[in-house]
User: Which sequence fits this backbone?
């Protein structure tokens, strides 16, 4: 009961923070909240989210990384990176998409609990791999959100219709620079995650990891190709957006797609 109550309050905080961001973006007159208020409410939600994860994921039996718990942990990492980055960079607008998604993950975790332990006896390589994978996925999720905003901004500017919230966004060049900063950091973490994963990978077929491994490497190639294209050919605009969203879609299939198949399709049979 307490767990559900805290999940509900955290969810309301995330939704309230997203609502405040929405008011800043779309409201033209009347009371327009300061961005610090939205970030502050988001941090309250993040604090409650932290307590929930500690209560439900970490135990003496190990770390519970069942599908909904992993989803909640990933959304916490995304929100933490978003809110901390918002203190110094103009990325808080991404909260309009990502904070409601985190709220949904909390409700799912609170109502659909399942067990898939990463045991305390698990190797250090596996634990490092899980941590790096979470951070890489979270940063590249932020990059995907940034790419969506960039696509909307680019479309409106080309149509010479910079209305509403488009006017509140940073300049296009700044948005692109932020996008490639996120991709660059996410690519480094994804590289380290793959290298640490190979340390404990014994038999991809026996461990049911062939699809996850192949798709993760493919996503790595996409993001790597995008960075090379940016460095050598100055890729930007639609090209950068398409490659970013394509790589992110492959990464989703690699992690959550594989997890859905193993936990909800293969295992029950």
Assistant:
């Amino acid at each position: 009961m307490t767990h559900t109550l805290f999940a509900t309050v955290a969810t309301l905080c995330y939704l309230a923070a997203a609502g405040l961001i929405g008011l800043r973006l779309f409201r033209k007159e009347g009371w327009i909240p300061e961005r610090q208020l939205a970030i502050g409410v988001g941090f309250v939600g993040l604090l409650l989210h932290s307590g929930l994860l500690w209560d439900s994921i970490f135990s003496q039996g190990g770390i519970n990384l069942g599908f909904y718990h992993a989803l909640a942990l990933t959304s916490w990492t995304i929100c933490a990176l978003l809110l901390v980055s918002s203190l110094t960079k103009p990325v808080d607008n991404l909260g309009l998409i990502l904070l409601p998604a985190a709220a949904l993950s909390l409700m799912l975790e609170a109502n659909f609990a399942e067990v898939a332990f990463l045991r305390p006896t698990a190797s250090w390589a596996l634990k490092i791999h899980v941590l790096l994978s979470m951070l890489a996925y979270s940063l590249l999720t932020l990059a995907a959100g940034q790419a969506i905003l960039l696509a909307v901004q680019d479309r409106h500017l080309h149509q010479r219709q910079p209305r509403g919230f488009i006017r509140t966004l940073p300049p296009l060049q700044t948005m692109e620079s932020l996008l490639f900063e996120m991709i660059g950091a996410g690519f480094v973490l994804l590289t380290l995650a793959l290298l640490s994963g190979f340390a404990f990978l014994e038999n991809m077929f026996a461990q049911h990891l062939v699809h996850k491994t192949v798709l993760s490497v493919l996503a790595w190639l996409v993001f790597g190709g995008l960075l090379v294209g940016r460095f050598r050919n100055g890729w930007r605009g639609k090209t950068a957006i398409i490659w970013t969203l394509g790589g992110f879609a492959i990464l989703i299939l690699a992690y959550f797609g594989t997890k859905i198949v193993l936990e909800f399709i293969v295992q029950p049979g």
Observations:
- The two ends are 32 Å apart (CA to CA).
- Residues 10 and 48 are 6 Å apart (CA to CA).
